[in-house]
Amino acid sequence: MAESSEPTAAPLLFDRALLLARQARARKLGAVTFLLDRVAGDFEERLRAVLRDFSDAADVWTPGELLREPMRDRFRNVVHIGLEGGLREALPLQAESLDLVVSALAFQFVNDLPGVLAQIRRALRPDGLLLAAMIGGDTLTELRQSLAAAEAECEGGVSPRVAPLADLRDAGALLQRVGFALPVIDLDRVVVRYDNAFALMADLRRMGATNILFERRRTPTRRATMLRMARIYAERFADSDGRIRATFDVIWLSGWAPHESQPKPLKPGSAAASLEAAVKRARR
Q: How many helices (H) and strands (E) does the chain have?
């Protein structure tokens, strides 16, 4: 049987319409923005360190207003692409129309991240910059472990609750795969302390960051399971004062649309002296 030449569609992990509703609910409850505040401050610092001017910029799916005002003050033309217009992850961007694309705390909820990054790469002019921050790494590892242990103990199985997260190596390889030059990936770990696991879960609700997996459990978790989860959390991840720790890992991605002015790696065999000769000299 001949193989199909059609590209395989990315699996639908996240219900992005539900994400939009959860973010709206968070705003009504009173949004918790400490993580977004930190990321927004880091964006300003990182952009100030870039020694070039940007005229046309786009902000892709960043929740809230924190990035918009600073960008309007600095750049001639700024387009904000809201989540409501990107449920299908198709970006309304023309090829080579932008100098800069930013995104804060949105890419962790994307079903086809390679596809979205490829769209951004096409939208950037040569020597245009992508700067993005997304949740990844060991984020909420304490909550994940506590929930899994409680469900295994109380219900005999574990249900999908927390989204799969990217790690640093995956993110770097992905930027290169879609054609970005000079990719740089780094991680900012934020550890927040809470009185108990329920206080953490209340913050996650007001961050619009609760479970949006399509395969999520559709029935309420048993009260006994949640109480056991909170006890396990306190037993395993509390400090000496009884407060628990919650880890948030922010992965920063930056990459440039290729341009002839950018540094390029040496071609194989182009070095002035061979490694073999250098090793022989070192052994003398």
A: 9, 6
